[in-house]
Amino acid sequence: MRAHLPALSLVLMLAACGPATKTAEPVDAAALHEKLLVLDTHLDTPANFGRPGWDIAQRHTMGDDMTQVDLPRMKQGGLDGGFWVIYTAQGPLTAKGFADAKAFALKRSDEIAAIVAKNPDTMALATTADDAQKIAASGKVIVYQSIENSYPLGEDLSLLGEFYRRGVRMVGPVHSADNQFADSTTGKARWGGLSPLGKQWVAEMNRLGMVIDGSHSSDATLDQMLALSKTPIILSHSGPKAANDHPRNLDDGRIKAVAAKGGVIQINSIFLAPLNSSPERDALEARKEKIGTMTPEEQRKLAADFAALDAKAPYQDASFENFMASMLHVLKLVGADHVGMGADWDGGGGVKGMEDVSLLPKITARLLKEGYSETDIAKIMGGNTLRVLRAAEAAKGK
């Protein structure tokens, strides 16, 4: 995406060292953001790869097609890449349900690989922590892969190995409902945390050297994963209940527990305020489920209808200030070693004043204003994510 300044290596080395210090001299926020390695751990953008007429190499807008990530906006926002999500909606826990989900997830993985192959001069697949800086230095976008919802694995844990071979390096057990592995934050507590198969899932994740993603996991599921995992856990797109008491957010005690085990909470930009659901919005969401078959004109019409509804009844009436309050709360609670970025772009995230990835430099500027050092910000913007990935790599096979 951009050639990094030589100072980046020093900044990242410092990010792995001891306690952060407050900045003492004025720093150019734009210049700092440009030289940092900036990663987001939850990019739902692959959901757009199959849309007729949609090209990641072209600049889009929320108003045109409701997307938040493309290569031009990534360059403008200094986003070097991150974890591109293989998301599968929860379905029935049946043989057919598992088979259909597996086929869908493999197809989405193929789509990610195909997009990278189509843009070889601007994108590159990454599978190790060391890949990130090499790819960024070459001016290309970093494409790690992750799985949101392990439902497609069915009851066959060997499929984790298949996805590992395809490049997946982070996986979460659940999404919005309980499944064969665990309970969800918005489920019915079927298992009281992890199922027996879910406990085996944790062990296999550790053995393969994959990062466990705790977002969407129930409190009991998270507690048990923390107890069982040999390596730190990431919450790829979560936030604190102190910002908004929503089931998807974490209480301070669990945030501290994640940090105590070396983990990182990647701050989300949704669930910052009460969500405004309505029959009108439900109808639009039902239309959006068919967006993969819509013409570009139909997509623009849907985007206009969403914009009209949001103008009178925003789904989440939150701003950049709400987002920063959430991030700053977690920073004060557990420190810069345990906070990162996972805004849920193209999956429901975005707030007024930070509508898409082009506006990410505002975060660096605000953190500097709050007194955080360059070393702190290097950790938050990507260093902590790579530290946890390295820990998973080091434990592989043990």
TrEMBL record:
What UniProt keywords are attached to this protein's entry? Signal
Q: What is the lineage of its organism?
A: Bacteria, Pseudomonadati, Pseudomonadota, Alphaproteobacteria, Sphingomonadales
Organism whose genome encodes this protein:
Sphingomonas colocasiae
Is Signal given among the entry's keywords?
A: yes
**Protein's name in the database:** Dipeptidase
Question: What CDD domains is this protein classified in?
Answer: rDP_like (cd01301)
Q: Which Pfam family name is an example for this entry? A: Peptidase_M19
Q: Does the keyword Signal apply?
A: yes
Q: Signal sequence span per UniProt?
A: 1-24
